[in-house]
Amino acid sequence: MIVALLTMLALAAPAAPPPARLLALSPKVVGIGADDARLLHQALVAQLGRASGVVVIGAAELTQLAELGSSKLELGCDADACLAELAGAIDAEYVVFTELGRLDGRAVAHLGLWDQRGGVIIRRASGTADSIEALSRQLDVLVAELLSPLSARGVVAASPSTTSPLLLAGVITTSAGVGVAALSAVGIAFAKNVIDDGSWSTAFRLQAQQAGPGLVAGVVVGGTVAVVGAGLWIAAVVSE
User: Which of 71, 127, 173, 237 could share a disulfide with 138, CB 3.0–4.6 Å?
Assistant: First the structure.
């Protein structure tokens, strides 16, 4: 029964949209050491990659593709054809521009999200901190703000808004198990009261006595189902 429920929920779940390809260009750096800028930008790319529904192409991958295009040009490839092939290989729908620097002694990061198809910046995000290390701790907030237009479009699911089938199955299964166990326990209490109370007819007291084992089994089965549901619930929460 539980397997059938999970199968139904999985089939009913909406198909996830294809991931958006996002190109993270090398940062423009002013007043910050090259090593600090490189490490901070790597942390930014990693944070971008944590957003579900996004495939991030970093500066290293872009450099490799550019080198491939340059090699083809040296071999006599037509410039326009090579650039078209390079753009097709990247196929990025969005581009992230980054500026890293210092202002009045504070580390500053400016981010811009460019919509490649619309040809426009659709979101900017900025952060300042006393040090590069402190600024790096703001990257999760900056990335969430930067990608918020994609979340609104249903492209990025930084925090899933739909309940996963596994979590839903856990809630339903746990509720059903608790309900069966609770009703069986109430039935046991009522049957015991009938058996002990001499005002009830002998036939009814006999029926209550005969129902006892079935009610006890209901408590056991309901409790087992509730435990299974709780396990599904926990698994869903951990997987998220």
Answer: 127
Rounded to 5 degrees, what are φ and ψ at 144?
Answer: -60, -40
Instruction: Give the model confidence (pLDDT) of 158-214 as tens digits.
Output: 444 445 676 777 778 888 888 888 888 888 888 788 778 777 777 777 887 888 888
Give the chain's count of helices (H) and strands (E).
Answer: 9, 6
pLDDT digits (tens, 9 = 90+) for 37-53: 999 999 999 999 888 78
Neighbour tally for 42: CB within 10 Å: 14
Q: Judge: domain 17-152, CATH 3.30.1340.30.
A: no
- The helix/strand/coil state of 110 is strand
Domain boundaries in the chain?
17-152, 165-239
Tell me how far apart the alpha carbons of residues 69 and 62 are, in angstroms, rounded to a whole number. 10
Residue closest to 142 by CA, chosen among 214, 41, 55, 26? 41
Whole-angstrom distance, CA of residue 232 vs CA of residue 228: 6
Report the alpha-carbon distance of residue 161 to residue 141 in Å, rounded: 18
Instruction: Count the residues in the chain.
Output: 240
Predicted confidence at residue 64, as pLDDT, reads: 65
**Among 19-23, 71-75, 234-238, whose mean pLDDT is lowest?**
71-75
